[in-house]
Amino acid sequence: MASQRSTGNPLDKAGLGIKLLGSAVLAGVLVAGMALPAVGALGLTAKDTADSFDNIPDDFKQPTLSQASMIYDSKGGLIAKVYDRDRTILTQEQMAPIMRQAQVDIEDNRFYEHGAVDLKGVLRAATKNAEAGSTTQGASTLTQQYVKNVFVEQAGDDQQAFLEATKKSMGRKIQELKYAIKLEEDLTKDQILTNYLNITFYGHQAYGVEAAANRYFSKSAKDLTIPEAAMLAGLVQNPSAYDPITHPQAAQARRNTVINKLLEYKHISPDEAKAALAAPLGIKYREPQNGCITAQNGMGFFCAYVSRVIKQDPAFGKTTADRQKLWSQGGLKIYTTLDPDKQAAANNAVTKKVNVTDSVSAAATMVKPGTGEILAMAQTRPYGLDSTKNQTTLNLNVDSNMGGGNGFSPGSTFKPILAAAALESGLPITQQYPSPNKMDYPKMSTCEGSWNEKGVSVQNESASEVGPFDLKDAMAKSVNTYFVQMEQEVGLCPMKQMANKLGIKNLANGTPIKQVPSMVLGTQEVSPLTMASAYAAFAARGLYCNPIAITSVVNADGKKLEVPKANCAQAMSQTTADGINTLLLGVTEKGTGSSLGLDDGRQIAGKTGTTDNRYAAWFTGYTPELATSVWLGGPTGNVSMKNIRIGGRYFDSVFGATGPGPIWQQAMNDALDGTPRTSFQTVNIPVPTPTAPPTDPSQPSGDNAAGGNNNAGGLINGGFTFPPGWTTGGNGNGGKPGHR
C-alpha cells in the first residue's frame, strides 16, 4: 500500500520531516536524547545510533589548506601565481567584518548561540519539510558545513573520495556531527568561522573569501562593501545557480536576500540596506590567473623549470610524494635568480631575430659565472598550449627531465672542453699538429680501453684549411682535424672527465655521455643551459657551479625552507681557465666570432658551432660577469638551415657566427648596457714556428660538427628529438606542413 502523508499533530509532522531530512534530525536526536518514531523508520534504534556515534574516532584533523604559491624574480617582481586551488589564507582581522556577518546571517544566523547542533533549527526544518512534503530546508550548522568542506578538501582531485565526502548517507552525517562537536570543544566560534571562510568554494576556481573577492571584485576581502559581501555570502549555497557572470539576475536576487537578512537581524541599518539593495552588482571580474602560462616576457619556461625543481629536487622532500604534497598545498613564496632586465634582453633577441612562424626557433640561457644563478631563459615561441598559435610548453633550454627535449648537437662549441683537458694534462698551449684537410679517425684510448673507428673520415670545413696549426689558430678557425689529433693524444677519458667536471655527465635525454671520437666535434645532444653553465666556469677562472634557479622559499607558515645549492667546485686550475679564455678571446677577435663584438667594446670570449646539414647552430660566449648560450635550429625536428629565410633574412647557409651569433650579440648588448666593464685574466701565447699557412678569409669557418659525416665517431646524427606528448608549437606555420 502506498504510504499516506500524515495530517496529525505537529510531532507526527516532525516524524515525516525526519524521514525526509534524514541525518540532520538524527543529530538533534543524539544530542537531546530524544527517541522519536523516525529513528525506527530510518532502520536504526537509539542504541544503534549511539554505538555508531561512539565508534567514530574523535581525532579530527583539520587539513593544511591548499593555496596559491607565488614565484618572484630576483628583484621581487611576480613571475606567476601557481596553484592547484586558488586560495589565500586570511586571519580574522584580514576579513571585512561585514563579510563575516553576512555569511553567518544567510547560512546559520544562530551560529553564536547554539553548539555543534542547532536543535531549534532541526525542529524548524523538520516541520517546514513535513508541511512541504519534501526536503526544502536543511538544518546543518555552519560548523557541520565546515566539517563537510574539510572532507571535500581532503578528497582533492580524487573523484571517488569526493563522491564519498558528499554523498547523502546516515553514516557520513553521524561522522560530521561527532567531528563538529569536537571542533566546538577545541576552537572558538570566531576561529571556526574564519576557517570556514578560508575553505569554502565560491565558484570560478575561487576557494576562500580572498580569492572570491579578487575574482569577482578585483579587491581584497578586507575591502568588501555591504552589497559585495552579500553577493559573495549568497554564492556559497549554489555557486553555479547564483553565478554573477552567467546568471546576474539570480545573483542579484540572492544578494538582496542576504541584505534583507542582515537588516532583519539588525546588523545593518535601514538606510544601509536601502543603499545596498539599490546598488548594481558592480562586478569587476578577473579571470583565474593560474600557472606559468600567465608569465610575461617569456618567463613561462623559467617558471615551469622552477616548478620542476621543487617537484624533483630532494631539498624539497625525500620522496616524490613529499615534494608533490609541498607543491600542491602551496602557500609558498618562491624567490628566484631570474633577472627581469636580462630576461627581457634575451627574450627580445630571440623573438626579434627569429619569427615565431619560421621553420626554426632560437633559445638562449644566461648564467652568472661563479654562482650558477640562471639569470634568463628565453625562446622564440611563446609558452602555451595552442600549437596553432605556435605556442609550446617544450623548454628548449633544458634537459628532458626538466621539461625540455632530447637536446641538440653543440658542434664545435665542445672543442674548448677538450682544450681544457689537454692543458690540464700538461700539453702546452702552443701545441701544434699537422692537421690535414681530411683524415680517418685514429684509434683512441678510453677510460676502459680503446676505441677504433675504422674507416670513418673527418675533414675540415674549407678545402684551404690545411695544417700545420697551433692551438690558438686552430681554435680561432675551428679546425676539425686539429682537435681530432689532439683528442688522440690526450685520450677520450680525460675529455669525458673534464666534461663531467663542467656539468656534462649526461646528455639531454638522460643517458651518460659516450666516449667516442666524434665527441670533440659536438655530436652528442646537450641543452643551452648545460653549455652556458660549462662556459660560465671558464669565465669564473675554472670554478664550476651547478645551475640554480631558486634563492629562497618561505612556506605557508613563514618558515624558510632549504633550497638546492650550487655546490661550486674548481673544475680546472685557474691557469688552465685563463688559457681557455685567451684562446676564446682569439675566436672573437680574429676568428669565427670576430663579427660579434659588443657596442661598448668590452672583452668577450666564445665559440661558434654548427652541425652537419646545418641542423643546429650555436654561439656560446661570455664576459667575466655573464655567460650566454644561444642555439638556433628546428624546434620539433631536423630542419636544414640552407637556403632558408629566418627573421625575414635569407641565408644560403647558416653558421654559428651568422645565425645564433647576432642573437647573442643583441641579447648581451642589452643585458650588459650600463654595467661595469671588466677584463679577463689572460696568458701569453708565444707565436710558434713554423706558423700555419694563411687561409682564404672568404671561405667559411670549420665549426661544422663531424666534418660532413653524420655517422662519424660512433654516433648517428647531430639532430634533435623530443619526448612524446609535448606541446611543441607545431612546425612554425600555424599547424601547416613546414619545409624540410
Automatic annotation (TrEMBL):
Enzyme Commission number(s) from the entry: 2.4.-.-
Enzyme class at the top of the EC tree: transferase
Amino acid composition bias (Low complexity), ranges on this chain: 698-726
UniProt feature coiled coil, ranges: none
Domain Glycosyl transferase family: 78-262
SUPFAM superfamilies in the record: beta-lactamase/transpeptidase-like, Lysozyme-like
Composition bias type Pro residues, residue spans: 687-697
Keyword Coiled coil carried by entry: no
Catalytic activity: Preferential cleavage: (Ac)2-L-Lys-D-Ala-|-D-Ala. Also transpeptidation of peptidyl-alanyl moieties that are N-acyl substituents of D-alanine; [GlcNAc-(1->4)-Mur2Ac(oyl-L-Ala-gamma-D-Glu-L-Lys-D-Ala-D-Ala)](n)-di-trans,octa-cis-undecaprenyl diphosphate + beta-D-GlcNAc-(1->4)-Mur2Ac(oyl-L-Ala-gamma-D-Glu-L-Lys-D-Ala-D-Ala)-di-trans,octa-cis-undecaprenyl diphosphate = [GlcNAc-(1->4)-Mur2Ac(oyl-L-Ala-gamma-D-Glu-L-Lys-D-Ala-D-Ala)](n+1)-di-trans,octa-cis-undecaprenyl diphosphate + di-trans,octa-cis-undecaprenyl diphosphate + H(+)
Keyword terms of this UniProt record: Carboxypeptidase, Glycosyltransferase, Hydrolase, Membrane, Multifunctional enzyme, Protease, Transferase, Transmembrane, Transmembrane helix
Residue intervals passing through the bilayer: 20-44
Limits of the Penicillin-binding protein transpeptidase domain: 363-627
Chain intervals with Gly residues compositional bias: 727-740
Stated name of the protein: Transglycosylase domain-containing protein
Organism: Kitasatospora cinereorecta
Organism lineage string: Bacteria, Bacillati, Actinomycetota, Actinomycetes, Kitasatosporales
